[in-house]
Amino acid sequence: MIDVPELALVALVGISGSGKSTFARSHFLPTQVLSSDYFRGLVADDENDQAASAEAFDVLHYVAGKRLAAGRLTVVDATNLQPHARAGLVKVAREHDVLPVAIVLDVPEALAWERTQGRPDRTFGRQVLTRMHRDLRRSLGSLAREGFRKVHVLRGADEIASAEIRYEKLFNDKRELTGPFDIVGDVHGCMSELLVLLGRLGYAVERDDAGRAVNAVHPEGRTAVFVGDLVDRGPDSPGVLRLVMGMVAAGSALCVPGNHEQKLARKLNGRNVQLTHGLPETLSQLEREPEAFVAEAKAFIEGLVSHYVLDGGNLVVAHAGLKEAYQGRASGRVRSFALYGETTGETDEYGLPVRYPWARDYRGSAAVVYGHTPTVSPEWINNTICLDTGCVFGGSLTALRWPSRELVAVPAAREYYAPVRPLSAPERPDEGLDIADVTGRRHIDYTYGRTTVAAENAAAALEVMSRFALDPATLVWLPPTMAPCSTSTIEGYLEHPSSALADLRAAGVDKVVCEEKHMGSRAVVRVSRTGVGDAIWTRTGRPFFGPELDRPLLDRVRAAATPLFAELATDWLLLDTELLPWSAKAGGLIRERYAGVGAAGRHALPAALAVLDQVAARGLDVTALRDRIELRASEIDGYSATYRAYVKPTDGLAGVTLAPFALLAGANTTYGKKDHGWHLAHADRLVAADPELFTPTRRLVVELGDPAAEADATDWWLALTAAGGEGMVVKPYAGLAATDDRGRLVQPGVKCRGREYLRIIYGPEYTRPEQLAGLRKRNLGRKRSLALREHGLGLAALDRLAEGAPLWRVHELVFAILAAESEPVDPRL
Amino acid sequence: MLLTLTTTHAPATDLGYLLVKHPGRVHSFDVPTGTAYVMYPEATDDRCTAALLLDVDPQRLRDQRDPFDLGQYVNDRPYAASSLLAAALAKVFRSALRGASKDRPELAAERIPLEIRVPVLRGTVELATRLFAPLGWEVAAEPIPLEPEIGGDSRYLDLLLTGTVRLADALNHLYVLLPVLDDAKHYWVAPDEIEKLLRSGEGWLAAHPEKVLIARRYLAHKRAFADSALKRLEVDDVVSAEEDQLPVARKAPLAEQRRDAVLAALADVDAARVLDLGCGGGALLTALVKDRRFTEIVGCDVSAKALDVAARRLRLDRLPERQRDRVKLWQSALTYRDDRLRGYDAAVLMEVIEHVDPPRLPALEASVFGHAKPRAVVVTTPNAEYNVHYEGLTGMRHSDHRFEWTRAEFQAWASKTADTYGYRVSFRAVGEEHETTGAPTQLALFEGEA
């Protein structure tokens, strides 16, 4: 029976003809085995070309590295008789913090020679085999010294044939334990606080005859996890050790070592260590304990595993934290990171080492819970949290309940030890974004789907995001684009309510709300009780008018929203609105594009008509041409009337209004599951609170399938658009996160734009029958898929925000929405 | 779109002979962008008017253009005179444009009283006057107003030209100057456009005071084409007053002085491996590449397009391998941390920070000074106090500037940043220093406190 760690680099060692390839084939998957012969063939077209060995091993090491980085067992099928060949493998294993294992196949030289002679591609002489055999003998003794953590030697053909592989888990792999857990920060001998904390957490303490706490058990079977640094500085390190040792032995706790335990064990082993940082206190406390207890404590510390991977891989506990690449791995540097963290090599003004902010760069999916660095209050940074709240320095002892992520803290009775560096200096939570979080071709899994962001779209979005957009910490959502309804076949119409309602019916929706589509500029508004971080932004994340107007606008929104903060129990709200009139933000665009064209047309066409009238007066027949020009003139008038309706005088904020239609999110929550009745009722509250600032959204709720109701909706739309309205948006009444019967998101709404309105989109003359016939061929597929994807990304961003996910996890989704906007889609849709 | 041509040269109906279009009929021609009509709203011996009306088919126009540009569905092309009308004019009045007339050769060679009206044309009264007046036209142009609800004038003119001009010259003036005023071409401008310009401009363009502007705009701002055309017109001076908004005499030397000041600062801190953050099209990179002291030069910009321009400007693909290996161009954004930027001797932010919104500056500081952490950082930015010396300048020096700082503001920012991230900072003036306002550009040199 051969024990092999689940993740290892296995080197087969044996002479030519010893049966390595056969052994590999029978025990491992073909893809797990990297054979030197195969790689020689890859680089030189000849598996036996020894001159290609160096290049072949180069590639083999590279592939092995990729496999190990991905956490895959890798077997190297080569003779591995030379120390330098094995050193290369040990190096690759160490680079990825996995254990190198050697399996030696030791067969008699005669048997190997017999097999070799049977293979036509092997042309070397017996002396080569003899030399190999000599190398093997020499190797046997030195494998362990070279760094192989396990060496299995199989002697003779029979032993090789009957060998079986048994996989063993790494000590740190406790993924099968799902808790629930109570993770306890650095105790440092603060026994009384620990007992209070365990009591608060619901543990019942068991005491021995002498009244000493020797175990604590939770009635619901919860497991305590200690992040290390049980000892030093505090008043009762032996007491803490005794209790934790008892809990670990009884199975009611897990414990990882801290640097203070490590140092204590070294001292107890007679090593020369500096008696600083509270170690003398522990030593003198231990002097009062029986020798057997001290020996037990030493054994306990030496038996601790550097870190644990728990709860299906969702939770990692290590004393000083652990970066993703080291989780579930085993090596000296993994242990060192877990115990001491990463330092930059510099020291601060107090002479303490400057720690590298690994948590800032952390992008792993497992939550990392750790201690080691005293902080005033624990804060989640990129899915990591430090629980050392400096109890021994007079702070508090903190526990994190998992998976509920609830924090429980007990204040220190007093300051037991003066800190070198004042505890009050708070660690700034640094969640700055890394360019690697957003650039390049990226695959994103966003709960509601998966998408790939093309590198060139990311590049375009990067420019917008970094040059024009708001701070990503503020910009937690961007409005998705919206698809129009299916193209109508009703004469004279490109879009019509009958198509819009049919679209939703086809999506399995039975009740919709038709909302007036305001023609203005989309505006996302974030307001809070305190006003800190409030902002209003456009659909591409830009500030709206600039601070001098945005601030007073936000002040007014905040005032109107104040009752909602209390009612919804939130400190802030995110509103989806349309800012009106269109001319307030788009004045330049209206002047240059729309009104300019209108003025040109209204001047040119009458001039042409005047010429034609003169020509006609001379008795020439220009009727057909004149009719065409006259039609054009009426079309340009219709076009001009359309944009003119969206131009209203504004002066600063005077004349500017907001039409809110959805409440997107608040503190720790999203309102995606609220129906639109709820959203509009809250929007109405804002309108009632400040009717001058807010514009109501007219709406009609329609039960689909009821012909009378659907006819009413059509009449409602016709009246709305006849009065100059842009049209309507038809939404599933159930709300933003509405899904179909298979649980997939449906379009959050389809727009149905008015006949006249579309003149400013498709051109003044689009209503001519021949033009409409061409336009009816428009393809909505891309626009719909884009709209749905952006919608899902936005919802997922809000979900992550509500869960308290790290900034980069929210930002990557918001960024992906912006990147999606770079995709080529017909802009008229 | 429309233009009318009137003469009062008796007998006025001879205009029909010159144009080879009978006044008693309505003529129509198929052109690539629609249908062109020639007709006569008046035709008496005293006064005869020919009208050229181009009925543009928007669909035909669209087929030739980018389908993702919304502007192609709603635009002024059916109404405003442009290269479309010029092309139609060339087709319909081909022989008249050449000055040829089978029936009235003497009249074709004669200067006759003409009145030309173009009811809708892009441009300003001032530019129309500059273009047509030197050719002997009396220019009466009226801006066309936008509607009263919006207020103000549109970008269009109603143009009326009056003069005594040979008909062929008049048509050639229109053929060249309509697209010049419109400043857009509906087709791809190929080198043979140079020939067309020179042919139509024969006899008047070389002496025209606006020939540089005419050549540039007619040739769709293709610098090489315009230079070639102007050379053939034997024009040496190719500096146009229109192109550069800032006083020309100051601008070029300041850019050079700034570059030299940055190079001097880099030399002072002994930098060999340098980052040019916000390198744009590579103005500084070219200078860095020429200097052998710089062993590694990294140009970073958030715009991939700017990096392409820089690569072309540096002729990266043609540099010898050893030279090319010194230069890297990376897309990066200064508001994100970028591990690739760590460990350099110096970083240059030349005229960059003023393009960043003030609330985003802390992110830039954190990524440059906190994360990339070069030994030295050189920052240059305009000195707002100096702006009073730019005549006619209102607001800031560039439309994308988010702020321009006084010396005190810049020094306060730089000192705070230096303090936060452990740098020493010193300041230098760049460009001609004025007693009260200081120099046009200010430079801060940050050095790490080792």
UniProtKB/TrEMBL annotation, chain A:
Gene3D superfamilies: 3.60.21.10, DNA ligase/mRNA capping enzyme, P-loop containing nucleotide triphosphate hydrolases
Coiled coil: none
Domain Polynucleotide kinase-phosphatase ligase per the UniProt entry, residue ranges: 460-824
InterPro entries listed in its UniProt record: Ap4A_hydrolase, Calcineurin-like_PHP, Metallo-depent_PP-like, MPP_PrpE-like, P-loop_NTPase, PNKP_bac, PNKP_ligase_dom
Keywords of the record: Kinase, Transferase
Domain Calcineurin-like phosphoesterase: 180-374
GO MF annotation list: kinase activity
Keyword set includes Kinase: yes
Name of the molecule in the record: Polynucleotide kinase-phosphatase
Lineage per the UniProt record: Bacteria, Bacillati, Actinomycetota, Actinomycetes, Micromonosporales
From TrEMBL, chain B:
Domain (Methyltransferase type): residue spans on this chain: 275-377
Keyword line: Magnesium, Metal-binding, Methyltransferase, RNA-binding, RNA-mediated gene silencing, S-adenosyl-L-methionine, Transferase
Cofactor: Mg(2+)
Enzyme class: transferase
Claim: S-adenosyl-L-methionine is one of the keywords in the record: yes
EC code(s) of this entry: 2.1.1.386
SUPFAM superfamilies for this protein: S-adenosyl-L-methionine-dependent methyltransferases
InterPro entries according to UniProt: 3'-RNA_MeTfrase_Hen1_bac, Hen1, Hen1_N, Hen1_N_sf, Methyltransf_12, SAM-dependent_MTases_sf
Family assignment from sequence similarity: Belongs to the methyltransferase superfamily. HEN1 family.
UniProt-recorded name of the protein: Small RNA 2'-O-methyltransferase
